[in-house]
Amino acid sequence: MGLTDITTRIEQAARDADRDPSGITLIAVSKVQPNARVAAVLDEGHRAFGENRVQEAAGKWPDFRESYDGIDLHLIGPLQSNKTRQAFELFDAIHTLDRPKLAKTFARLAQEMGQCPPLFVQVNTGEEPQKAGIAPDDTDAFLKDCKALDLPVQGLMCIPPVDETPSLHFALLRKLADRNGLSGLSMGMSDDFEQAIAFGATHIRVGSALFGARVPEPD
Ligand SMILES: *Cc1c(COP(=O)(O)O)cnc(C)c1O
Known about the structure:
The chain is an alpha/beta fold. The protein has one domain (3-209): Alanine racemase (TIM Barrel). The chain has 9 helices and 8 strands.
């Protein structure tokens, strides 16, 4: 597929859901992709990208920012506390606020740096022990804590379990966001972004469908 095909599918899914496609941001997930492929998508005019590792992003995005204006870079992978400062400097949004300790670190750093990127709280909708994120039952309380810390939480993010119907998870994330007055929903990947749009996704994260298979596959 290419950018045009994905954009067409987004527009169709938005129409089917009676939504304005301009309310949906396509985050092109460029992790592990060769720079030439990323540059090709930049040359087509796309600006929102996602990376899941701070180190990898630090290796390529400062150079791209020199060559292209208006890049909007999103961190979509787990963040270690000791890389928070670097993440604040590199990224325009962070989708993986997934634990209380990180919220405290963000708050401290926001105070010190006088700014904080927009944040999404990652919810472990499938309650998978190996997966990061706040448990659905703890989400309301965690969001209250974030508010008390003055963190700019814009929405919620989830990665549904691979072997389950994603719609159930999208619906749950939507419900949690609605009842907490949050408008942002970061959900939907290559295989299910149209369903995510039907459930109200505002940020879809699409990698392989846009760039082709990742070689080598990250762990
Ligand atoms: C890699 C990744 C994606 C993109 O996955 P595709 O299936 O290639 O679209 C989306 N979200 C997260 C958190 C990822 O790590």
